[in-house]
Write a structure and sequence with these properties.
The protein is mainly beta and about 325 residues long. About 5% of the residues lie in helices and about 35% in strands. A five-stranded mixed beta sheet has the order 20-19-21-22-23, with no helix packed on it. A four-stranded antiparallel beta sheet has the order 1-2-3-4, covered by helices on one side. It has a four-stranded antiparallel beta sheet with strand order 7-8-9-10, with no helix packed on it. Strand 5 and strand 6 form a beta hairpin. The longest helix has 7 residues. It starts with a helix and ends in a 19-residue tail after the last strand. The relative contact order is 0.11.
Amino acid sequence: MASLMIQETQCVGSSHGWLIFLDEISNPFLFNPFSKTKIGLPEKHTLPIIPQVQIVRGLISNNSNPTIEKVVLCGNPSPLDKNNYAAIAMYSSCTGHTKIAFCMQGDATWRNLDGELETYYDVVCHDGTKTMYALGPGPTVEVWDLSERTAPKKKVLEGSCPGKLGQVSHVEYPSDLYTSRWYLALAPSGGQPPHEMFLVVRYVGEFVRYDGEVVYEGDTLTDYMSEPLVCPYKTVAFDVFKLESGSKEWIDVECLGDFAMVLGGNHSMVVPTKESTKFERSSIYFTDDYWDRMEEDYCYGGHDNGVYNMEDGKIEPLVENQPDKIVPPPFWIVN
């Protein structure tokens, strides 16, 4: 059952031990790989979309077909509790920006979250308070109360931009050689806030040689080879920041102590390592989520996985002799 489903669907999320898939017509559903339970979510066409009319060479087209990029859960779905979870979808709008919508258990349609941000990079939830945090440019974080089905309440956290995200990052990781991906994660705090909030910036070299040098696309072409050099994209570094609750400033984090982070297509997590043999302390475990380029070449894609040690800046592979092409790409499943 599971292998057939994977062949015919696309995974767009992992949350609370559940995988979120799109079926053959891109409608989302939840699947628990342990219990083999499947739960439907509202169909894609119910996502709140404002159609945008485009005029192309004299023809009028209506570009209103959204693409679901990621789904995370607030709460763990259970057949014993009919009101215990919400699902949040990140989807591309007709403008090319990423928007967010949510549904509660039993909803037939996605509900609009009328956020003020132009686009969104990540969302994460605190289950105990049914609170959702949405990360956007700035960095800015919108805070949504999802405890009410009809009228979510929102406030905005606007921390100062960390210096590393300004001129420093542009010098060290120029945009013509690197891309960056932003994540938001909450440290475990029990049932109630306050909890520590982390911003993680992942730097990915667009074309990386096997010796680790990041090069321009034109450098992959040679006069003496009929084919260009294979230089897959590759994660080269991370920056981590923590939001100070009093000053509302993002401060640089050099070490996570007895915690690790788990990033990728899953909902971003901070996990304790003191009593765990699965995770190394002060490390970031990451999987490939560069969806725009994952299928561009038959030689690579789904390969950008590893463990980043924050104390020495080194990246180790998740597994030895990892192939350059992994289909489907791996997802973390953390219960």
